[in-house]
Amino acid sequence: MDLQYVTKLTKLINQYNHEYYVLDAPSASDAVYDSLINELIDIEKAKPELKLPNSPTTRVGGLILDGFTKFEHSSVMLSLSNAFHEGDLRDFDNRIKKMAPDVTYFVELKIDGLAVTLHYANGEFVRGATRGDGVIGEDITENLKTIKTIPLSIEEEHPIEVRGEVYMAKPVFESLNAARVANGELLFANPRNAAAGSLRQLDSKIAAKRKLTMFSYAFVNALDLHLDTQSASLKRLSELGFNVNQTSTTCASIDEVIDFVNHWQAKRDNLPYEIDGIVIKVNELDIRSQLGNTAKSPRWAIAYKFPAEEVTTKLEAIRFTVGRTGMMTPNAVLVPATVAGTTVARATLHNADYIASKDIRVGDEVVIRKAGDIIPEVVAPIKDLREKDAVPFEMITNCPKCKEKLVRPDGEVDHYCLNVDCPAKIVAALIHFASRNAMNIDGLGEKIVKQLFDAGLLVRIPDVYTLTAKQLLPLARMADKKVSKLLAAIETSKAQPLDKLLFGLGIRHVGAKVAETMAQEFGHMDEIISKDASALMSVNEIGEKIAVSLVDYFANDENLAMIAQLKVLGLNMAAAQRAAVSDDSAFAGKTVVLTGTLSMPRNDAKTLLENAGAKITGSISKNTDYLIAGEAAGSKLAKAESLGITILTEDEFVTLLGSA
User: Fold this and answer.
1) CA-based, 20 to 30 A from 433: which of 71, 101, 110, 624?
2) How many CA atoms lie within 13 A of 174 on its CB side?
3) Rg for the chain (alpha carbons), in Å?
4) What is the mean pLDDT of the chain?
5) Are 325 and 362 in contact (CB under 8 A)?
6) Which residues are catalytic?
7) How far is 607 from 602, CA to CA, in rounded Å?
8) Mean pLDDT of the 32-40 span
9) CA 37 remoteness from chain centre
10) Which pLDDT tens digit goes with each residue over 431-451?
C-alpha cells in the first residue's frame, strides 16, 4: 500500500460519510463502508507514516487531553438580541429600513445547541473552538473531529472560518438517557445539556460515541470568498460539504418572516432536533457592514424566541433578595416543577408593580415559564383555583436584612435599601467586584465571599487585598493549595485595567460597556473623578442618568477614600495602553479595510494599524482611506477601485508603516 492508495481510500470514505450523514442518501451499504474503514485502520496501524492529518479514522476519537486550552477568536462571536413578539420583529424591521430600505431577510431555525467555530487552512480542518464568552473559547478540535457532519477536508485552498451549531438529535438523546438509566447514571436534562457535556469530554472516544451533529450557518470571511449574501454563503457551504439546514430561506418582507416564524412555531415538535426560535438576518452582507454591531450583538440580526414552555405549580412564599445597589427583587418560592427540561423551585416576580398588576398571591396555583427559555418567571395566577382566604400582596417597607426603611425613587418601579452598611448589599457588591467581567478573581465566588463576610474578614472592597494565609487557613474547607491559589488570583487582579475596576465598583448605571467607553476616553481614574456631568455627557453613549450617577458616586468622601486605599494597595488605575501613535504616522486618524490573504496574521496587521492610530472597519465606503489588499482579494478590491480609494499591497503597507 502506498500514499496514493491511502489518499484515494480516504477520499472515498469521506464521500460515503457525506452521503450518509449530510445528504441522507448513502450510495454504499453499511457492510461496504465498514469494510473500507476497517481496511484503512489496518493500513494506518501497519504503516503509521501513511496516516493523513485528517484521516476519517479520527472520527472514532481516542485522544485523551489533560484539559482544554484557551482559544482567542479572530472575530468576536457576538450573541443576538432577542424578540419575543411580532411587534419586536416589526420594530427590528423599521430600524433596518430606516438605513437600508431595500433589504431582504434570511431566516433560519435557531438550533438549541452549542455555537462553535471551525478553521480550515489549505483545505484541511486545523482548529475548532467553543464560543466561550465570545472573545475567548476552548480548543475542542479533537472532539469536533468525531462529528461526521463536519468535513475534515474541503476543496477550498483559501483560509476560511465557519461558524455553526453542534446539537444532539432527539432520538440520540433518548437512547443516551435510556442507557444511563440502565447503568444507574444521572440523566441529562435536555439534548442541549447532553451535547455540551459531550463536547467537553477530555476523552474524545466518549465524544465520538455521543453521535453529535452540526449545522453550519456562516463564513466569518464571506466577503473574501466573493460572497455577497447569506443565501450565497449557505449555498457555498453546502457545495464544500458542510451540513446546512435546508429549511432556511430568503424573505422579501417582514410579513414573510412572520409567516415563517408562525409556521415553524407550530411545527417545531415534528423536527428531529430541538429548536428554540428563529434567527432573522439581513441577507446582504455589504448592508450588514453598514449597520454594524453594538457592544453585545449585531444590529443586522435578531433571534425570535418561541414562547417558553409553561407549566403550573403552587406559589408557597415570596422572598426578597437584595442586590449590590440595594434593589429589592421579589422571588417566588415554588413547589418544584419541570420547565423546558429543568427543575424550577424559584422564579422571579420582577417588582412590586408586576405582582400587583397580576394580583399574584401566596398560596396561588401559578403559571410559570422560562423567559427566553432561560430565566424562570411567574406569568400569572390561576384565580379560579384560588383559596378564599388568600391575602393580597403588600410590598415590604423595610429591608429584610438590615431592617432599614426602603425607598422608591420617583419615576422608578423598584424599591431600594439605602443603608450603606446593609450586609446583603455588601455581600452582593463584593461578589460583583470579584466576578469574571469585573476583576475576575478566580476562587472568590459567592460561597467564599459569604464565608469571609461571616468571618469578619471581608466587609469592604479593599479588604480583598489585605487577606492573608494566616487569616484564611483556619476557616472550613480552606486547605493550603486553595488558599495559595486564591491569594495568587487576588494579586493578579491588581493589574486589571481601569474599565474592569470601574465596572467592579458597582456604580449604578455603569455597565461593562460604559466602563470601557469611559476608560478609553479619559485614560485614568483621576481624570474621571475630576469631570463634571457636562464633561462626562460629552462622551458618545454617556447620557445624563449615567453622568449624574458617576458624579454622585465620586462626590462621596467614603468612595474617594476607598479608591485612594486601592491605589495604595497597588491596583491599576489606568486604561489598557496601546503603543503611542507617532505624529508622522501615515495611518493616524485614517479608516482602513483589510482584505485577502496576508503573509502576517490578520490580527497582527490590525494591531499594527491600531497602534499607528488607524480605525479598522470591515467594509468599504466613501469614508475609507486605505484598502490593504493581500492575495486573492475579492469584492472589496473591486469596490475600492470603483470609489477611487487608495489601495496598498502588503509590502506598501509595511513600508508606509515604517516610514514614520
Assistant:
1) 71
2) 6
3) 28
4) 87
5) no
6) 110
7) 9
8) 79
9) 38
10) 999 998 899 999 999 999 999
